[in-house]
Amino acid sequence: MKKTTLNLALLLALSWSAHAETLSSWNDTPARQAIETWVQNAVKPNSPTWIPPEQRYVVFDNDGTLWPEAPLTFQLQFVIDEIARLAPEHPEWKQDPLINAVINKDMKTVAAGGEKGIIKLLTLTHSDMTTEAFNQRVATWLETHQDKRFGCRYDSMGYQPMRQLLDYLRENGFKTWIVSGGGIDFMRVMSKKMYDIPPDQVIGSFALNEFELTDDGTQIRKTMQGAFKDDAANKPVAIHLFIGQRPVGAFGNSDGDLQMLQYTAGNQAYKTFGLIVHHTDAKREYAYDSHPPASGKLIEGLKEARAKGWTVVDMQHDWKTVFDPELCPAKG
């Protein structure tokens, strides 16, 4: 065998070894193969499906796609814990049935309050403070609270296969964005540490905060004015507003991500990729689709995935591990 042939074989072997290590938490199933095929075709210059580096924008939902959203989204758990922490400072709250339900962990009554009730709780815990003060509250919560089932810090519970996928995409020249219904300021506190995604590449629900001049300088003060919920049909709108171009890849887990997947698939210039994480693992995480514990209903997304050829990840079948065992040892 010629030396050049040997060198080529060695390079291919090293390349495959690197890919295998990068996606080591994935089983070698059609889901992983579909990811690798799309990426390698997208970055191969002579491929008819090559995507220029400046167009390699991919978007990821967060709740249920990059970390759990059951039994409650982590941000809602933060709201509940903050209400309990702040309650002694607000004796007037005792007259409020909704707040009493939160303090008594009566989630049935909290749920009955609907979106109006959630907005009220968000107003109490996410507004009338500086952005720095809010960031510190979230950081302190992350340091002092753990998921009750798994006994792990919330910011250690990113799905290991998805974190590896983010790394794999970036290694191949893709720019990774979070596009989630979660609060933009809440996610920005931990996005760099958890996913190596900087704050400026995080898109989420937001409100129109206020700029203030103070004796000490300047500050941004959080309000609930003009609140924008970054979910469902609002996700493509937010992508256009913050990114300014259609992505080439979209990754979600629920019908709330469907329009983001549809918008991405509508990019006629390049071969796009769509992926849905299907929660099928009650032992290592949770199993749900049409009847989620809190959020993440998945009905129409599964139907459209079959029709459009999007990849559906069966968490139980396709993932070797769910959480990084060094950060969050599995307890089930």
Write the layout of secondary structure elements.
Layout: H1 3-22, H2 30-43, E1 57-60, H3 74-86, H4 97-103, H5 107-112, H6 114-126, E2 129-130, H7 131-144, H8 160-171, E3 175-183, H9 184-188, H10 191-195, E4 202-205, E5 210-214, E6 217-222, H11 234-242, E7 249-252, H12 258-265, E8 273-278, H13 300-308, E9 311-314, H14 315-318
Helix pairs in contact: 3-6, 11-12
Quick structural summary:
This protein has 332 residues and is α/β, with parallel strands linked by helices. Helix content is 42%, strand content 13%.
Keywords:
332 residues; alpha/beta; 6-stranded parallel beta sheet; 9 strands
Task: Give an account of the 3D structure.
This protein is α/β, with parallel strands linked by helices. It is built from 14 helices and nine strands. Strands 4-3-1-7-8-9 form a six-stranded parallel β-sheet, with helices on both faces. It has a three-stranded antiparallel β-sheet with strand order 2-6-5. Helix 11 (234-242) packs across helix 12. The longest helix is centred in the first third of the chain and has 20 residues, at 3-22. It is globular and about 65 Å long. The model is unreliable at 8-20 (pLDDT under 50).
